[in-house]
Amino acid sequence: MTSIPDELHYTKEHEWVAGVDDGLTLTVGITAYAAEALGDVVYVQLPEVGTTVAAGDSVGEVESTKSVSDVYAPVGGEVIEVNAAVVDDPSLVNGDPYGEGWLFRVRLEGDADDLLSAEEYAALTSGES
Amino acid sequence: MSRPTPLRGVHEALGATLTDFAGWLMPLRYGSESAEHNAVRQAAGLFDLSHMGEIFVTGPQAAEALDYALVGHLSALEPGRARYTMIVNAEGGVLDDLIVYRLAPEEFMVVANASNYPMVAAQLTERAKAFDAVVDDRSDRYALIAVQGPRSQEILAALTDADLDGLKYYAGLPATVAGRRALIARTGYTGEDGFELFIAGDDAEPLWAALTEAGEPYGLRPAGLSARDTLRLEAGMPLYGNELSAALTPFDAGLGRVVRFDKPGDFVGRAALEPLKDVPPSRRLVGLVATGRRVPRHGYPVVAAGDGAVVGEVTSGAPSQSLGKPIAMAYVDTGLTEGLAVDIRGSHEPVEVVDLPFYRRKK
User: Fold this and answer.
1) Which sign does the torsion angle of CA B102, B118, B4, A14 carry?
2) What is the distance between the alpha carbons of residues B5 and A120, in angstroms, rounded to a whole number?
3) Cα separation of A102 and B274, whole Å?
4) What would the pLDDT profile of B29-74 be if each residue is shown by its tens digit?
5) H helices of chain B, where?
6) pLDDT tens digits, residue range B195-229?
7) pLDDT below 50 — which residues of chain B?
């Protein structure tokens, strides 16, 4: 079992979203489950700061030894910050997916109603593994 | 349902990520595949290769049968030695690449890829019909464990009295390892010194345990198929299904040297291959090193950086631990060595053409 922190929200694309309850700026990363499935992450491409994204847009990619996956915007809004540290050292995604391995921050426009709770995400991943 | 090897329980206990490979349930990685890759380059790695096929050809005309069935000159092989060779169809297309061990004057072991060995066994049986030789697919009875890396001889020496110093590259030696019978071969698919142990399936777990214990002081770690793939790619070694296929001849793959027209008698594929031996192929297998960080992967088009014209195709690609950059092998139009890019999901990423292999161990 990989960790699925209760306080976060999730997507079916195995991303986590922090800050949904308190506000406007949401932080996005990929889950421990996804990081483990990918294997060692070797390259991360992130959206540019200032880009306006819609929920579900492909905004970047995460590449591991064996595969490459899209990064999706879990909500709509403006990208206000990206994690330069994870671009320099993609292994942060494996080492600390919910902390130093965060990917980008979005200023929410619209709502974040379609995200999954930790419980719902746990059910999703237990069905896949 | 994928088929497990005799070491499935060991892999599960180690927490391996298991994957289907050619119908077999195999360890993809145990932890970090980069750490496994580096362990093989710097210390040693332990691999379960029990999915490979072992086909025995025995009898008074075993050597002649293999000379007819394969492109190599196996009757010239000395007992105790091994040879890299291929089986081709009548059109010269590669059906599989093989390592053939001559265990005794009238006994050969043909090691074939997991995805191909039932077909190879059937082809050998058919092609050996006119000879006094018996083809016996013993793959189900064998397990195969490899120890690869600069410390592998020290590790194996702790478990056997066999003369490892005297065992040459591409040679095999029947021996006892940790009290169990094994054919020790000095072969591998990583670009490092190393050994492959052909053993009875029932001996796989105790031998894996003995090697794990003997290797502990040397930094041995279990390594999965993911590391095996990046290791062989750095070493410029072809993988059937990627660099080799029935649509390509050994000459297309730059491996024409394995076709031995100088051997006596006819062989399957001779008529088709002979006219090709002095004809430059339209495409050549080359090494590519990406200047950026995105990875060229199997099937991606190679394009001319200027006009974007497709001039080739990537056969294998991965991030290289040893070079710190993405690397790939690709078939590229003969003569093109500059101004190339790989179309990585729509964007043209520049690559440099380099000689293979990407990595060569220090002797």
Assistant:
1) positive
2) 36
3) 59
4) 999 999 999 999 999 999 999 999 999 999 999 999 999 999 999 9
5) 8-13, 33-42, 62-69, 117-127, 152-157, 204-215, 225-234, 270-273
6) 999 999 999 999 999 999 999 999 999 999 999 99
7) none
**Residue B196 in marked binding region:** yes
Q: Which residues of A touch B32 (CB under 8 A)?
A: 39-40, 94
| Nearest CB partner across the interface for B29, out of A39, A42, A43 | A39
Whether residues B293 and A68 touch (CB distance < 8 A) is answered with no
Give ipTM to 2 decimals.
0.83
CA angle B182–B187–B191, rounded 5-degree value: 145
Length of chain A: 129
- Does the pLDDT at position A128 exceed 70? no
Query: Parallel, antiparallel, or unpaired for β B94-104 and B310-319?
Result: unpaired
Total H helices, total E strands in chain B:
8, 20
In order of their start, the domains of chain B are 1-280 (3.30.1360.120), 282-363 (2.40.30.110)
Instruction: Count CB atoms within 10 A of the CB of residue B209.
Output: 12
Q: List all residues 6 or more positions away from A72 whose beta carbon is below 8 Å from its beta carbon.
A: A11, A13, A15, A56, A57, A58, A59
Is residue B216 left, alpha or beta, with left meaning phi > 0 and alpha meaning psi from -120 to 50? alpha
The secondary structure of B296-350 as a DSSP string is: P-TTPEEEETTT--EEEEEEEEEE-TTTSSEEEEEEEETT--SSEEEEETTEEEE
Nearest to A65 among B230, B294, B345 (CB): B230
Q: How far is the C-alpha of B107 from the C-alpha of B63, rounded, in Å? A: 8
CA–CA gap between residue B59 and residue B259 (Å, rounded): 24
Per CATH, the number for A9-110 is: 2.40.50.100
Tokens representing residue B346 in the block: 């729509």
Give the CA radius of gyration of chain A: 13
| Inter-chain CB proximity A65 and B226 less than 8 Å | yes
User: For the sheet containing B172-177, what is the strand order?
Assistant: B172-177, B180-185, B194-200, B142-148, B44-48, B220-222
**Measuring CA to CA, which residue among B225, B236, B227 is closest to residue B328?**
B236
Residues on chain A bordering chain B, Cβ-to-Cβ distance under 8 angstroms: 36, 39-40, 42-43, 45, 61, 63, 65-66, 68, 94
Give me the residue spans of the domains in chain A. 9-110
Rounded distance, CA B259 to CA A114, Å?
61
Enter the tokens of residue B139. Answer: 């793959």
What is the rounded distance in angstroms from the CA atom of residue B108 to the CA atom of residue B131?
Answer: 14
Four-CA torsion B344, B349, B353, B359, nearest 10 degrees = -70
Whether residue B248 contacts residue B89, with contact meaning beta carbons closer than 8 Å, is answered with no
Q: Is the dihedral of CA B220, B111, A67, B319 positive or negative?
A: positive
Please return the burial class of A126, using the count of CB atoms within 10 Å of its CB with bins 0-12, 13-18 and 19+: exposed
